Amino acid sequence: MNRSPLVSVVIPCYNAAATLPWALASLLAQSRQDWECIVVDDGSTDHPEEVVAALGDARIRLVRFAGNQGRAAARQAGLDQARGDLLAKLDADDWLYPHKLAIQVDVMQRLPEAGLVSTGIAIEDADRRLLGVRARGEAGACRLRQPLGRPAALPVAHAASMLRMEIAKRHGYNQRLRRAEDADFLLRVLLANRFCILHDVLYAYGEYRNVSQSETLDAYRQRMAMFWTYRRRYPLTSAVRVVQTAAKWTAYRVAFAAGRQAVLVRRRSVAPTPDDVQAHEAAWANVAQVHDSFFEPAAPAAQPESAAARA
Hints:
Elements: E1 7-13, H1 20-28, E2 35-41, H2 48-55, E3 60-64, H3 71-81, E4 86-89, E5 95-96, H4 100-110, E6 116-124, E7 130-134, E8 162-164, H5 165-171, H6 181-192, E9 195-205, H7 207-210, H8 213-228, H9 235-257, H10 261-267, H11 274-294, H12 307-310
Parallel strand pairs: 1-2, 1-4, 2-3, 6-9
Antiparallel strand pairs: 4-8, 5-9, 6-7, 6-8
């Protein structure tokens, strides 16, 4: 890429008008401003178009479905509308650290062999307090990795990943999967392309805002179906992955019945370091400043206290 690449950011949105302002504020707060955003309203009833209109930014476009079609359809519609050189994702109830796009674009320009560059993610509670971190790469320079040799547990987070647009459009989203479309998309990409994972935590994910029994169990059921599609090419690996995923489905079903699902979610992350806490607070304050210039002051009004600080 000789010119400055345009990043297309796709935001699927379903009845998330309460959190969409914060997500969009984090995009406006980016240190790199060469981006476009496609917000896909998946049949919402809470008027996300009013949020987009309040910003008055021509870089943000709204695509509307007459009725709810599911996340896969929304993601694919955004991908179809994307005009950029690179694809980034942002869910309507999550947010980006201010340097996320700039750092990933820099790496993708330095490593033209990389089809995907991902980052670590910050795990938040319902009040946007930092609880843990996940999916980060090794400390130091981003190491270019070979494509996955066979279906495996995903080493990167879908939401935090940036891809070259031609790769993203070549693979696309399986619209028959309403819960595991992101995992299915990533697995197909990683089986065919080299990638790297940054140590930096640059994406904030409200996992504890999103945990529900039906959605969690449906996602694991569809992941079993996803792995089973590879049974002819990788018969043993496919069977092992299906069994492993079924075991996770059982563990979550038992945990929900006992009211202990948060324990399993917590085990998927590692405790944040003091540097993680400081970076999260600084990023939060930056986004809050942009958010409050367009919308009502963010809640909580003060910077969120981290789990580490409360310990």
